[in-house]
Write a structure and sequence with these properties.
- The structure is a single chain.
- The chain has one domain.
- It has 128 residues and is an alpha+beta fold.
């Protein structure tokens, strides 16, 4: 992925434009249009996981069932959408631990930081 400060923001705007969306209400509307399904699963090891076909034609986002806050769960799903649409992110699978999602530490891998920036500019804004 080219290191550009605006890359996730640009991709968020392009995604919303391509899907003819001004805002995202129900995440299921967005995920289904992208060919993704979301499953809540039991896990002690991760907060969110993306598993997808190599051609990115469809995939599954798994989120930890015990995430209590709906905003945090929504952010985790949007973070995984970021991995799905941003170039250079995991070819078929991304496993994100609690420390990866909604964290802004400078020592984090660039891909995790980029995936964290996408929800703030796309999926997490419901317009409410």
């Amino acid at each position: 992925m080219e290191r550009s400060v605006s890359s996730p923001e640009v991709f968020a705007r392009e995604l919303m434009s391509q899907l003819d969306l001004r805002r995202v209400g129900k995440l299921s509307d967005l995920t289904s249009r992208l060919g993704l399904s979301v499953k809540e699963v039991d896990s002690d090891d991760f907060e969110g996981v993306l598993i997808c076909r190599e051609d990115r034609s469809k995939g599954i986002i798994a989120v930890r069932r015990t995430i209590r806050e709906e905003g945090r769960k929504r952010f985790a799903i949007c973070h995984e959408i970021g991995h799905y649409i941003l170039p250079g992110h995991g070819a078929r699978q991304c496993i994100c631990k609690t420390d990866d999602i909604e964290s802004w530490r400078k020592s984090m891998p660039e891909q995790e930081l980029a995936a964290n920036r996408l929800p703030r500019n796309c999926c997490c804004h419901t317009g409410k």
